[in-house]
Amino acid sequence: MQRKRVVKERVVYVLDYMREGNPLDRHKFHRDRPLIQAVGEDYFLLLELTPLSYNLDFFPEDKIELDSNSSVKVDAHISYEDLTSVSKDNLPKILHKIVLEKEKVFVEIFNKAEPLTLKLHALELLPNIGKKTLRIILEERKKKPFESFKDIETRIGIKDVASILVERIIKEMQGGEKYYLFVYPLVSDENKRLEQQFIYVGYIEKLK
């Protein structure tokens, strides 16, 4: 897997920790040694990490700083399909936690998101937001900027904004999208063969 440019996560959350390694992992060096699967909070990169000590234990939702004093080493970027079943089960809950922690940034997306083309607005890529709901959002944010998820839900009449955002993030992680609002996309050999074109919008990076 390759990426269009090098981006790095500062903080990740543990999705799954395999003390004995993962015998099904496509990386041979992960099959018989401790392995962590994690998700980053800035670009939503999916990563495999190796603990720097066999004495360390990790649990889902643990927050790890990837600085010079980090207790882990980043080994590889992985795709959604590389995640274990445990990681996939934990992913929505952990993404929900990240979205709530970054509520101010995500609210600003509702305030500042723009059209991607003449016919498609960025907000229309979110689940449950069609032309009618988009029109209401644009009208309401002209009157007064949104201040919170609750404010958006009350004024627009949609439910659980955080879950809507999580659903979109997971869809982008799964790949095959033309526009990536949040997730920094992987470029696979298959994408290259198909000459698949995609656009990284990167609202979190722009507004944080």
Topology:
Elements lengths: L10 E8 L16 E6 L5 E6 L11 E3 L6 E6 L7 H17 L1 H10 L18 H13 L5 H8 L4 H14 L4 E2 L8 H5 L5 E2 L2 H5 L1
Parallel strand pairs: 6-7
Antiparallel strand pairs: 1-2, 1-4, 2-3, 3-5
Helix pairs in contact: 1-5
Pfam families: DUF655
InterPro entries: DUF655, NA-bd_OB-fold
Protein name: RNA-binding protein
Number of DSSP E strands: 7
What's the rounded overall pLDDT mean? 89
User: What is the CA-based Rg, rounded?
Assistant: 18 Å
Main beta sheet: 5 strands, antiparallel
Overall number of structural domains: 2
CATH class of the largest domain: Mainly Alpha
What sequence of helices (H) and strands (E) makes up the elements? EEEEEHHHHHEHEH
Residue share in helices?
25-40%
By CATH, the topology of the largest domain is DNA polymerase, domain 1
Counting DSSP H or I runs of 4 or more residues, the number of helices is 7
Determine the oligomeric state from the structure. Answer: single chain
Overall outline: elongated
**The CATH fourth-level homologous superfamily of the largest domain:** AF1531-like domain
Strand content: 15-25%
Structural class: alpha+beta
InterPro entries: DUF655 (IPR007003), NA-bd_OB-fold (IPR012340)
Pfam family, one: DUF655
Protein name: RNA-binding protein
Organism: Saccharolobus islandicus (strain L.S.2.15 / Lassen #1)
List keywords for this structure.
single chain, 208 residues, alpha+beta, OB fold (Dihydrolipoamide Acetyltransferase, E2P), DNA polymerase, domain 1, 2 domains, five-stranded antiparallel β-sheet, NA-bd_OB-fold, DUF655, RNA-binding protein
